[in-house]
Amino acid sequence: MEKTLILLKPDTVQRGYIGKIISRFEDKGLKIIGLKMMQLTEALLSEHYSHLKEKPFFPDIVSFMSSTPIVAMCVEGVDCVNQIRKMVGITDSNKAEIGTIRGDFGNSVSYNLIHASDSPETAEVEVKRFFKSEEIFDHNRLLDKYIRS
Questions:
Q1: Mind listing the pLDDT tens digit for each residue in 77-132?
Q2: Residue 148's pLDDT is what?
Q3: CATH tag, 2-147
Q4: Which of 1, 63, 101, 115 has the highest Cβ tally under 10 A?
Protein backbone atom coordinates (compact mmCIF):
# COMPACT_ATOMS: atom_id res chain seq x y z
CA MET A 1 0.00 0.00 0.00
CA GLU A 2 1.37 3.40 -0.98
CA LYS A 3 1.83 6.24 1.53
CA THR A 4 2.22 9.95 0.91
CA LEU A 5 2.56 13.29 2.67
CA ILE A 6 0.05 16.11 2.56
CA LEU A 7 0.63 19.50 4.18
CA LEU A 8 -2.31 21.84 4.70
CA LYS A 9 -0.60 25.20 4.49
CA PRO A 10 -1.21 28.34 6.58
CA ASP A 11 -3.84 29.68 4.16
CA THR A 12 -5.88 26.49 4.65
CA VAL A 13 -5.66 26.91 8.43
CA GLN A 14 -6.47 30.63 8.32
CA ARG A 15 -9.41 30.23 5.96
CA GLY A 16 -10.97 27.39 7.97
CA TYR A 17 -10.71 24.73 5.25
CA ILE A 18 -8.98 21.96 7.23
CA GLY A 19 -12.10 19.82 7.60
CA LYS A 20 -13.35 20.43 4.06
CA ILE A 21 -10.04 19.32 2.57
CA ILE A 22 -9.54 16.32 4.84
CA SER A 23 -13.07 15.12 4.07
CA ARG A 24 -12.25 15.02 0.35
CA PHE A 25 -9.50 12.48 0.96
CA GLU A 26 -11.70 10.43 3.27
CA ASP A 27 -14.59 10.57 0.78
CA LYS A 28 -12.22 9.20 -1.87
CA GLY A 29 -11.53 6.21 0.38
CA LEU A 30 -7.98 7.16 1.27
CA LYS A 31 -6.91 6.31 4.80
CA ILE A 32 -5.35 8.86 7.14
CA ILE A 33 -2.64 7.06 9.11
CA GLY A 34 -0.92 10.13 10.56
CA LEU A 35 -2.30 13.56 11.41
CA LYS A 36 -0.92 16.47 13.41
CA MET A 37 -0.83 20.23 13.64
CA MET A 38 2.67 21.65 13.89
CA GLN A 39 4.63 24.87 13.71
CA LEU A 40 7.30 24.62 11.03
CA THR A 41 10.83 25.78 11.79
CA GLU A 42 13.22 27.47 9.40
CA ALA A 43 15.47 24.40 9.57
CA LEU A 44 12.67 22.02 8.56
CA LEU A 45 11.52 24.38 5.80
CA SER A 46 15.07 24.72 4.48
CA GLU A 47 15.30 20.95 4.25
CA HIS A 48 11.86 20.51 2.72
CA TYR A 49 12.28 23.29 0.16
CA SER A 50 16.02 22.78 -0.43
CA HIS A 51 15.39 22.64 -4.20
CA LEU A 52 14.14 26.26 -4.00
CA LYS A 53 16.77 27.63 -1.61
CA GLU A 54 18.53 29.69 -4.29
CA LYS A 55 15.35 31.20 -5.68
CA PRO A 56 14.64 34.86 -4.84
CA PHE A 57 11.21 33.95 -3.43
CA PHE A 58 12.59 31.38 -0.95
CA PRO A 59 12.48 33.80 2.05
CA ASP A 60 8.82 34.46 1.25
CA ILE A 61 8.09 30.71 1.34
CA VAL A 62 9.78 30.38 4.74
CA SER A 63 7.93 33.42 6.07
CA PHE A 64 4.57 32.18 4.83
CA MET A 65 4.98 28.53 5.84
CA SER A 66 6.07 29.49 9.36
CA SER A 67 3.43 32.20 9.82
CA THR A 68 0.90 29.85 11.47
CA PRO A 69 0.74 26.16 12.30
CA ILE A 70 0.11 23.76 9.43
CA VAL A 71 -1.55 20.36 9.38
CA ALA A 72 0.61 17.43 8.31
CA MET A 73 -1.02 14.21 7.14
CA CYS A 74 0.26 10.82 6.13
CA VAL A 75 -2.27 9.17 3.84
CA GLU A 76 -2.38 5.61 2.55
CA GLY A 77 -4.13 4.08 -0.43
CA VAL A 78 -3.80 2.34 -3.75
CA ASP A 79 -1.84 4.64 -6.10
CA CYS A 80 -2.49 7.43 -3.57
CA VAL A 81 0.30 9.75 -4.79
CA ASN A 82 -1.27 10.01 -8.24
CA GLN A 83 -4.82 10.09 -6.89
CA ILE A 84 -4.00 12.92 -4.51
CA ARG A 85 -2.07 14.92 -7.12
CA LYS A 86 -5.16 14.82 -9.35
CA MET A 87 -7.40 15.84 -6.45
CA VAL A 88 -5.12 18.74 -5.48
CA GLY A 89 -4.80 20.31 -8.95
CA ILE A 90 -2.00 22.32 -10.51
CA THR A 91 0.11 24.73 -8.46
CA ASP A 92 -1.47 27.92 -9.79
CA SER A 93 -4.87 27.92 -8.13
CA ASN A 94 -6.18 30.43 -10.69
CA LYS A 95 -5.58 27.88 -13.45
CA ALA A 96 -6.52 24.74 -11.52
CA GLU A 97 -9.61 22.89 -12.70
CA ILE A 98 -12.86 23.30 -10.84
CA GLY A 99 -13.40 20.16 -8.81
CA THR A 100 -9.80 20.09 -7.57
CA ILE A 101 -8.91 21.41 -4.13
CA ARG A 102 -6.93 24.32 -5.55
CA GLY A 103 -9.54 24.98 -8.24
CA ASP A 104 -12.36 25.11 -5.72
CA PHE A 105 -10.71 26.87 -2.78
CA GLY A 106 -7.49 28.50 -4.02
CA ASN A 107 -7.00 31.96 -5.46
CA SER A 108 -3.27 32.36 -6.01
CA VAL A 109 -0.08 30.63 -7.07
CA SER A 110 1.66 31.65 -3.83
CA TYR A 111 -1.18 30.75 -1.49
CA ASN A 112 -2.24 27.43 -2.96
CA LEU A 113 -3.48 25.71 0.21
CA ILE A 114 -1.75 22.36 0.06
CA HIS A 115 1.44 20.43 -0.57
CA ALA A 116 1.32 16.83 -1.79
CA SER A 117 4.31 14.60 -2.53
CA ASP A 118 4.98 14.33 -6.25
CA SER A 119 6.17 10.71 -6.43
CA PRO A 120 6.27 7.59 -4.26
CA GLU A 121 10.02 8.08 -3.80
CA THR A 122 9.59 11.69 -2.68
CA ALA A 123 6.69 10.65 -0.44
CA GLU A 124 8.87 8.15 1.40
CA VAL A 125 11.44 10.86 2.19
CA GLU A 126 8.85 13.50 3.06
CA VAL A 127 6.80 11.26 5.37
CA LYS A 128 9.97 10.50 7.36
CA ARG A 129 10.79 14.22 7.47
CA PHE A 130 7.48 15.16 9.07
CA PHE A 131 6.51 12.04 11.04
CA LYS A 132 8.28 9.81 13.54
CA SER A 133 7.53 6.11 13.05
CA GLU A 134 5.41 6.06 16.22
CA GLU A 135 3.19 8.81 14.76
CA ILE A 136 2.07 6.57 11.88
CA PHE A 137 -0.79 4.21 12.71
CA ASP A 138 -1.47 1.04 10.75
CA HIS A 139 -5.12 0.29 11.39
CA ASN A 140 -7.88 -1.58 9.63
CA ARG A 141 -11.19 -0.07 8.65
CA LEU A 142 -14.24 -2.18 7.94
CA LEU A 143 -14.69 -0.45 4.58
CA ASP A 144 -11.14 -1.19 3.38
CA LYS A 145 -12.27 -4.42 1.70
CA TYR A 146 -14.70 -2.42 -0.43
CA ILE A 147 -12.27 0.22 -1.65
CA ARG A 148 -8.97 -1.57 -2.14
CA SER A 149 -8.29 -3.52 -5.28
A1: 999 999 999 999 999 999 999 999 999 999 888 899 999 999 999 999 999 999 99
A2: 63
A3: 3.30.70.141
A4: 101
**Residues β-bridged to residue 4:** 75
Can 115 be counted among the known catalytic residues? yes
**Residue count of the chain:** 149
Taking the C-alpha atoms of residue 20 and residue 4, their distance in angstroms, rounded to an integer, is 19
Q: Are 1 and 115 in contact (CB under 8 A)?
A: no
Tell me the HSE value of 145 on the side-chain side, using a 13 A CA sphere: 1
pLDDT band at 147 (very low <50, low <70, confident <90, very high): confident
Virtual torsion, Cα 57, 124, 128, 14, nearest 10 deg: 50
Pick the catalytic residue: 48, 51, 115, 139? 115
Instruction: Say what the pTM is.
Output: 0.94
